[in-house]
Fold this protein.
Amino acid sequence: MKHEIIKKKIDKVLEKYPAAVFKNRKEHVLVNDCSIPEPQTITANTRTIPGIITNRGCCYAGCKGVVLGPLRDAVIITHGPIGCGYYTWGTRRNKGKKKSDEKNFLNYCFSTDLQEGDIVFGGEKKLRQAVTEAVQIFQPKTIFICSTCPVGLIGDDINAVAAWAQNEYGIKVISFSCEGYKGVSQSGGHHIANNGLIRHIIGTGDAAVGKYAINILGEYNIGGDGWELERILKKIGYEIVSMMTGNGTVEELSNAHKAALNVVQCHRSINYIGEMMKTKYGQDWIKVNFIGVKSTIKSLRDIARYFDDPDLTARTEAVIAEELEDITPQLEHFRKICSGKTAALFVGGSRAHHYQHLLRDLGVETILAGYEFAHRDDYEGREVIPSIKEDGDSKNIESIEVQPDPENFRLVLSRERYEKLKDEIPLNYYGGMIKEMPDGSIVVDDLNHYETEEFLKILKPDIFCSGIKDKYIAHKAGIFSKQLHSYDYSGPYAGFKGAVVFARDIAMGLTTPSWKLAVPPWKTQPVLEGRVATC
Amino acid sequence: MLDYTPKEYIQRSALTINPAKTCQPVGAMYAALGIHKCLPHSHGSQGCCAYHRKFLTRNFRDPVMASTSSFTEGAAVFGGGSNLKTAIKNVFSIYNPDIIAIHTTCLSETIGDDIPTYIMSSQIPEGKLVIHANTPSYQGSHVTGFSNMVRSMVKYLSVNSKTPNGKVNVIPGFVNPGDMREIKRLMKAMGAAFTMFPDTSNVLDAPMTGKFDMYPKGGTKVQDIIDAGNSLATLALGSFASSDGAFELDKKCKVPARVLKTPIGINATDEFLMAVSKLTGMAVPEDLEEERGQLVDIMVDCHYHYHGKKVAIFGDPDLCIALTDFAISLGMTPKYVLTGTPGESFENEIRDMFNAAGIDGKVKALGDLFTLHQWMKEEPVDLLMGGTHGKYIARAEDVPFVRIGFPILDRSVHSYLPIVGYKGAMRIIEMMSNALLDRQDRDAADEDLELIM
Ligand code: SF4
Ligand code: SF4
């Protein structure tokens, strides 16, 4: 009954669309019904209809902006006209701090700034020269070349330039053909970046690592999240071989194959590497969620189970207890303010799921959630992957086949232990968002402006977690909006300490006195008394 | 911070490092938002549109609405005609603007999409309008994009219907909504009948009312842009952002154009008001003369706060030109002036000012912040002025920094308050003096900390 009422409301929103748009969009929206035994399906990772005001970005944004951008020791040259490179300069808050003698290029922005002549006669020459200049000025160990829309059309062979430069200068030069029009969103760019890192970087190092060596995948150190994870994990006794890619380096990534386990935070943007490393090096990956106190605890326990070492397990419990003791009083204070509120979430490809846990810790119920560029598995769980039909757009993104690396392939778990463990912890598996959502909540893929406006009107959430393009729309309508891409320049929000920062920020947003001032007092109080002459 | 920027100047011909400009569409989008009930439309892949909306939103902290043709690989190969037609249909039926202002992107430009033909074969509801501007980012900068969109407004809309309206047109240039409000206030104070376009006030600085309005009250009415063809004259404020639109009006509708500096600082504001006065035949009113007098009073009283200080200025050409002039009128030395936008005329104009003032300074168009930083390493300045990205240099060189121009992403309120006019000039002086005096305070030994300055 409850579901029917919500469905009717949704239909009313969607019915206003022209027929073709209605037909398309209704497949991207569902009401979570926990009483239905069979899983509900949703359409995702398909084209946005032209004219729709979408939040989605492009392939370049996913490749350069998300996955490669945080690597601090690489000079990333955006090959194209100026805009694309400029917009990714310092805007994502992937923090990075250099260690000792390496270089950190995070405050620099490099572009070939193609001009009309280059578009007409080709930009390869300029790119070569740009690489040469970058080598002369900065002497980096690694250069990445990322191409933008027009480059694909004018036919510049960036692979050839990369190969030439690598040979000429004896450094790593890797090209990424991540033109914005490829795929249907940022997602294609994640995949392209993942492919490049597997092909050219991971596995090229030979550092020795310890027993509890892990990689953290899909953690971009926004607002320092990665540092909070590092703090906790190191305290327990793990060695972090590499972080992909927040505060990461090419150097560290080259040794990633040595780690015993891959810990995956953002599934969408990096699952390809997780899978390819499993095939190539035998490493298992485990899906974690360090957003939320309970989910952080669960993630830590799951990782400990994987290693199955009594000392490590004891240490894990001790750290959990210590951290909880530390944060509980503060968290309690903010929880009282937030409790009972409702939230709608629309973020990238994992956060819309992750943050539901943290909000739940604060007593906030999620009534709507959606991803900007997820695939069906992020909603429904990896079990649906075999049944996802590839369309033309996804076929345009290369899928690479890797083979076991005879020298470096090793299995950490015995077959029996693996079989047993995989029923207990999310080993090489992500269950998706929907299963963990409340009954009657709404799931929307690629939420657009019209739907945002309408759903906010109908659902009246207290908090709308989205990005900068939506933020002030919600604010104008009197709804507090929290950016979950940039954290409104705050953070960290991950782990234990991060949960407190998030709780503080949400409480602050809900209680800032300004909300009450929107209506001027003369609209509510009689003032028409005076006799003073007017001019 | 910026640890690998060497002092020694290195000739570069291909690599731009830390740009001082961005791409055309973002300027076109901004201009289009200055038409009432207009939805800007980005014809290309959706990433460009997402970046441009984000960027403008961060600068103004207000909703920036715009749609996209959402190209995928197919459109990139076969052309974006069907995407655009679908987009136009959907935008009118879902978002219901009065007018769609299309701008192109690098992608649709490189393909060579013929936008007018696509528009012609689109379904456009009765009474609605679609205009377009070509905005290839491999030419010019965001300022060029703004200028191109303004010109397109004229091309598509303005008509000389032989019914003179007795008004003056004002093209304000790529300035903040707060500046546009101030320009309107000055025009009203001058008693001039006018049309200003574009006008982003009350669009990108709209009030909080508890209700989201996709098309806020502000923006120049389409009818007024049409009628701009019947005006007596056009004042183009800022040659880079505004002159093309004004010349187009002259060409198309025979409305004479006069290009002025952006009215930043005392001289440029004087020129602006005198130009208006000349057109209306009315004297500058006492109120404004009083404001001017206040400004000069401040300039005289506080000159020692900034006189003789060396300043580096970067940003959009129209802002840099006016600001350099103002700095000189304050007795400062604009040592370095740099814009990312190309244009020889920029370098010439600044050089003329240097020569007239006997300043040994450096100027560059199509420059980047790496170059500016190198100059500052070679010979330091006392103050840096420009958009947010300057903060990296300011920190690296420990130089006081005044945020001015576009974009400002790390401070608020700037878009509400003017830097144009006499009031704006006071505000600039306040910002500069404060920055310089704060630094003096910070660096002073205890015994040298002054209570009164
Ligand atoms: S492709 Fe062109 S229009 Fe799009 S963001 Fe890049 S430079 Fe700007
Ligand atoms: S959480 Fe979302 S936005 Fe962040 S990296 Fe993953 S997919 Fe991208």
Chain A has a mean pLDDT of 96.
